[in-house]
Write a structure and sequence with these properties.
By secondary structure, this protein is of the alpha/beta class. The protein folds into two domains: 151 residues, 2-Layer Sandwich (Nucleotidyltransferase, domain 5), CATH 3.30.420.40; 182 residues, ATPase, nucleotide binding domain (Nucleotidyltransferase, domain 5, 2-Layer Sandwich). 38% of the residues lie in helices and 17% in strands. The chain has 15 helices and twelve strands. The protein has a six-stranded mixed β-sheet, with helices on both faces. The chain has a six-stranded mixed β-sheet with strand order 9-8-7-10-12-11, sandwiched between helices. A hairpin with a 2-residue loop joins strand 8 and strand 9. It is globular, with a radius of gyration of 20 Å.
Length: 362
């Protein structure tokens, strides 16, 4: 099984055999245009290729790609402009081979959200005609993280209520109840919610109307502003890479210090808002590259969550591997889980092929 995970700025290829990653190729800075990295690995014959797609629309399950489905997925490029074009390009390259290519969708995990969690307070005739609703993202990361914590504590996933905090170039918080997403911070696009590396996160819609009405920027400029020029990058003048921002803060850069403070505050706010979607809080799960590689940042976030009884232990935070980082016996448990979307991709693609072989269509 080969997995292809195109990020907003990176590309990860993995070879997964019997649920274990045996080979990996990572391009930290990928422009989404050069197909050479997709052809580089000299791996054995591939039986199935699984490609991560951020946006699948209303699809609730993975699907084997063909030209018609690719055309359908192209419609979602405006809703996920940082990711969808890269996934489409990667999928097309993979389809040159003989192995079936399975698309796995970040949005599918959130299809279980109640209608009240999906709708916006906009006129019904518009929302229904144009499909204006909350989709949610980072579903694959969240599914793996939730599966992993239940393995660590030998608990039934159907009895766990948790908040999954994904911190990468994008940031989202998802409330998970009994294995299902019940609410999440991202919405119609991956712009909603917490502040991110280059994305603004939620902004007062009136402010955006003001920018357009006063001709401060055009519509095309506004999209670029919100997706590429905002967040940590916009506030600091850096690339938005958290490593650069934290280094600047350490050197006394006040813009960087403020940006990190806003970043932390917005994540706390999303955690607090989504906690009320659960009956109780069993766990808070931090995952994604920014969380895993910057434990001090996770500590800063946790220190503002006393109202939820969240606490972490510095010694455990500074350790390595998937682990509990909260005091023994305290609830909610706090976890640090390495994001392994490739394992979730492989698992979902394998189940999809099994269903096809068995003649199960849904």
């Amino acid at each position: 099984m080969m997995t292809v995970n195109p990020g907003s700025s990176s590309l990860k290829l993995s070879l997964v055999v019997d649920g274990i990653e045996t080979e990996r190729s990572v391009v930290d800075r990928w422009d989404g245009v050069d197909c050479a990295p997709l052809l580089r690995p000299q791996w054995p014959k591939i039986d199935v290729v699984a490609v991560r797609f951020v946006h699948g629309g209303d699809r609730r399950a993975p699907v084997v790609l063909d030209e018609g489905i690719l055309d359908d997925l192209t419609d979602f490029v405006p809703l996920a402009p940082l990711h969808q074009p890269r996934s489409l390009m990667a999928a097309k390259v993979m389809m040159w081979g003989s192995a079936p290519v399975v698309a796995c969708f970040d949005t599918a995990f959130h299809a279980s959200m109640a209608i009240a969690a999906r709708v916006y307070g906009l006129p019904r005739h518009l929302t229904e005609k144009y499909g204006l609703r909350r989709y949610g993202f980072h579903g694959l990361s969240c599914q793996y993280a939730m599966r992993r914590i239940t393995e660590l504590i030998h608990n039934n996933p159907d009895r766990t209520q948790a908040l999954c905090v994904h911190m990468g170039a994008g940031v989202s918080v998802t409330a998970v109840k009994n294995g299902r997403s019940v609410d999440t911070s991202m919405g119609f696009t991956p712009l909603e919610g917490a502040m991110m590396a280059t994305r603004s996160g939620s902004v007062d819609p009136g402010l955006l109307v003001h920018l357009l009405e006063q001709k401060i920027c055009r519509v095309d400029e506004l999209s670029d502003l919100l997706y590429h020029q905002s967040g940590l990058a916009g506030m600091t003048g850096t690339s938005g890479d958290m490593r650069d921002v934290l280094a600047a803060r350490k050197c006394g850069d006040q813009d960087a210090a403020l940006a990190v403070e806003v970043y932390v505050r917005r994540i706390r706010r999303e955690i607090g808002a989504l906690a009320v979607s659960l009956d109780r809080l069993d766990a808070v799960v931090f995952t994604g590259g920014v969380a895993v590689h910057n434990w001090e940042l996770v500590r800063e976030i946790a220190q503002g969550l006393e109202v939820l009884n969240v606490d972490v232990v510095k010694r455990l935070l500074a350790a390595h591997g998937d682990r509990v980082v909260s005091p023994l016996g305290q609830l909610p448990r706090v976890f640090m889980i390495k994001d392994r979307e490739e394992l979730e991709l492989a698992k979902q693609a394998e189940l999809t092929m099994v269903r096809i072989e068995q003649g199960v269509t849904s």
